[in-house]
Write a structure and sequence with these properties.
With 286 residues, the chain is of the alpha+beta class. It has helices at 4-16, 79-87, 100-103, 115-121, 125-130, 132-139, 204-215, 253-261; strands spanning 22-23, 29-31, 50-55, 64-68, 71-78, 94-96, 105-111, 143-158, 166-167, 188-193, 196-203, 219-221, 228-234, 263-279. The chain is globular and about 55 Å long.
Length: 286
Amino acid sequence: MIHNSARTLLLAALLTVPLHGIHAQAPPIPVSDLSTPAATTDVNLPVYDIASVKPSDPSARGMRIMNTPDGFSCNNISLKTLIGNAYGIRQDQITGGPSWVDSSGFDVQAKVAGQDLEAYKKLTQRQRESLLQPLLADRFHLKLHHETKVLPEYDLVLAKGGSKLKPSAPFTPPPDAAKDPVAARRPGRMMMGPGTLQGQGIPMKTIANQLSYVLHYPVIDKTGLTGDFDFELKWRSDESGPPAASDDAGVSIFTAVQEQLGLKLQSTKGPVDTLVIDQAEKPSEN
């Protein structure tokens, strides 16, 4: 059974880091394309040539979502999570639709083939994720629209005394990096649990994204820090269940960020892009 806190942090990872075999009960999460650039409109994206979408086994408890060498695979993942992954947006920025979009799990297997496979290998991580968009529209009859709302958010800035983040060791790309753009990017790892977040080789943008999921509001990186960092963050979990086992378990996320990372979360407001689900239908099994 996945603890509520662990489930929240796991789903955060699914939307903010590349997915190379993420399992609900296997905490080390490999990361290789942490910048997740937006999918561009001037690239001819391939389409999934083979796709299967079906409801998950109702008794399933674990979650799995991953990129494969030729496509995408997931088990027991909600449509809301799939939308977030496809559009590069957090789940709390998605509204509307029937209640099952957040409660029902689905198994998806999708692959590209033939000439599409070579084009697929050249895509950025974000572009690969965007290939889910036409698949969701086709199988779920999904219709969405964007809305910009002025919502609370946080600026992540340097605290008095400066950053306490540890710069990661220099990264040397492997010899075959010229043939594989993904291999040329620094690999990173994150481990998450109730009231805990650890990372190695993580840029500030991804750290801010992870804090967004903890706070349920956008966190904007305004630290000015560049490069990749190793860090460990522990705070009091506000969800049900026991707090993280550490001397720092009793502090709030705000205090933890300031004392342990040398950063500060400043409350503000700003325009936030949201997605509204206008239509969604459960797919027929195939």
